[in-house]
Amino acid sequence: MDRVCYLCQELPPDGDWSLEHIIPNALGGRWKSRSLLCRVCNSTTGSEIDAALCREVGWPMNMMGLTRERKPVPKQVVTLPDGSEYLRDAQGRLWPRHAIGYEQLDGNQVTLSIQARNRREARAKLREYEKKYPGKIDVEQFMSSLTETVQPHRSPVNFTSSGVGSSAALRAVAKIAANAFIEWGGLPDQIMECISFIRGESSRQLVRWYYVDEVWPDRGDMDVTHVVALRAGAPGEGLWGYVELFRIYRFAVQLSAAHKGPIVHRDYVYDIGQKRVVTDAQPVFSPGALDLEDGGVDLEAIRAVGSHMMRIAEWRSLEASFGEAIGKAFTEAVAANPNATTEDLLRHLHTYLDPVLLAVIQAGVRRDGSR
Ligand SMILES: [Zn+2]
């Protein structure tokens, strides 16, 4: 029998299979298959449900400076302690959301300063002030005095993230488990109810949060992982999937309530920071008689993993800043003198490293509350 697309149960016309990421590319997933979904189902589920999941749980990509296979990681809205909002790129640099102008009044003197993402925005902002203060502003002179700066930012920022757990996002979680099941040789017939759920045709909830047990108690302190584990034991216990995203978000998926065998025990563990599949991990996931009706959200658990992730993110971003500074200094030193000595290198290193160190020190002071 020819293999069919497991979602629409059709043989793709002209063998028009598409490349399905088992865990979405936007979440840094790299495991993929060309024999799961037809092009139509891939693009429909991509825009309808994967997009919702990525919107809701995708922020660690930016926060941890992770990379994905296709397209750069999008900038993320963050809020500084003073309430101002910026866009943060995956290198940890902050960009104004729009051009910002500051006016400072001193007697009958007004001092203007402008922050913008590029010269075009700066000029538009200046035109606004030109209207407000007719004949007082020389736009071209102001433009010629603009300076471009890139400043590493180390003080705490808050990531603005939307709620998690929309029904579209939960369907996308079910698809991750179903993708893995089919890819590992399971038959669509065995998980029909789950397939209806992914297609949005079943009202029964088949996905729940899973913080019942820590599935991998001896995991590395700095590891950030995606996990897909499938389990089916004795008949009557059902076929279950465990899906973990960025270590924080943990779900159980009921692939089939009526699984009659065989026994299933498969794991996929991906270290997203190191970009490697972990082969010696043995997640302990024993769904037994897990109750789907029980919401299973443990806010304390999410918060604890979340703050642990913040520490990992800080470390990763600090490491990246140092790496970048050293790289730039080296390039510059060698460009100036192909036979640059260590001493030459050090001179250039100060230029790039000092701002990073200063930012770290300032952030430390601020966090102690002593400023
Ligand atoms: Zn299809």
List keywords for this structure.
6-stranded antiparallel sheet, 36% helix, alpha+beta, 371 residues, 8 helices, 4-stranded antiparallel sheet, binds zinc ion, disordered C terminus, 14 strands, 3 domains
Topology:
Layout: E1 20-21, E2 32-33, H1 39-57, H2 59-63, E3 76-79, E4 85-88, E5 94-96, E6 100-106, E7 109-115, H3 119-132, H4 139-144, E8 158-159, H5 167-183, H6 192-198, E9 207-209, E10 225-232, E11 239-245, E12 249-256, E13 264-271, E14 276-277, H7 299-336, H8 342-368
Antiparallel strand pairs: 1-2, 3-4, 3-8, 4-5, 6-7, 9-12, 10-11, 10-13, 11-12, 13-14
This protein binds zinc ion (ZN).
Describe the structure.
The model is unreliable at 365-371 (pLDDT under 50). The protein has helices spanning 39-57, 59-63, 119-132, 139-144, 167-183, 192-198, 299-336, 342-368; strands spanning 20-21, 32-33, 76-79, 85-88, 94-96, 100-106, 109-115, 158-159, 207-209, 225-232, 239-245, 249-256, 264-271, 276-277. The protein contains eight helices and 14 strands. Helices cover 36% and strands 18% of the residues. Helix 1 (39-57) packs across helix 5, helix 5 packs across helix 6 (192-198) and helix 7 (299-336) runs antiparallel to helix 8 (342-368). It folds into three domains: 13-57 and 165-297, no CATH class; 94-149, no CATH class; 304-368, no CATH class. The longest helix is centred in the last third of the chain and has 38 residues, at 299-336. The strands form four sheets. Strands 9-12-11-10-13-14 form a six-stranded antiparallel beta sheet, covered by helices on one side. It has a four-stranded antiparallel beta sheet with strand order 5-4-3-8. A two-stranded antiparallel ribbon has the order 1-2. The protein binds zinc ion. Zinc ion (ZN) binds at residues 5, 7-8, 10, 37-38, 40-41. Zinc ion (ZN) is lined by residues 5, 7-8, 10, 37-38, 40-41.
